[in-house]
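Worked example

This section walks through a single chain of length 288. The input is the sequence exactly as stored; nothing has been trimmed or padded.
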Amino acid sequence: MGDHYIPRHYLNGFVGSDNCLSVYDKRSGNCFRTQTSRVAHENGFYTPDKERYLATEIEGPTVQIINKIKEQQPLTKQDKNLFTKYLVTMWKRVPHTKNQLIIKAPSICQELENEIIPLLEEEIKKSPENISFLEKREKEIKQILQEFSVNPPKEAWEYNINPNTAPNILKIIEHFMTWAFLICVEGNNQFFITSDNPVFIFESLGLNKDHSEISFPISKNITLWLTWNRDIQDCNYYYISGQTVKEINNRTISRATRFVYATKEESTILRNLNNSNLQLNILNLRLL
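Given that input, the structure is written out below as tokens.
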């Protein structure tokens, strides 16, 4: 079994009565049913050290918090702190983020070269006696950046997985945004789904605008909605309509890299799986 980029304990919140998931493959358009141990993993996806870090520092401390949320219990400040780190890690640890680094690597390396090389050339002018040494270093730096732009090292991506590398995002989510747990009653094909890229944000908005928001399905019955709406009681639980469930599920489908996971097969998921015109809306909820 490979490294799970989506934790099994998390996926267990979406299984059906047979303890299996319906897995939708955006690449093939097919759907199949299987156990959580057989999905959302890849051999060598993380180094052993990073796999241990995720298990002991991120997933382990959050298991009881997820169980509390499923049981609609109040969260402590410590719970909220730990779950914020879990959420940000879920944002970073998935194939989508790894692929984004590969895509962005050439531009990142070019920016670094544009910053470093002029400094070296300036140093050459100041210290002509060291020209041989400095020119050698300049050549080495260009070579390293060229190699990284084509094949960015796993260490660079794994370093970024640590939530503490994004302190501003942690602060915004934990202390400034309002948390609302949205609940749907399973029945009439009403249930939340998840994917191999489960944290949704309108990337064009970022997090700082007053209509920015994040949604993160926690189980087939509960989704966390992060908003700037101050009229909502923080960390409270709210029952929502079927239309809102559909909207959140459309977000999940749209951001999936390849796989969508659901408690059972549903025709709407199959129809929307590769719908490039899927309508995504800001949630305008009045929660009482």
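What to look for: The two ends are 45 Å apart (CA to CA).
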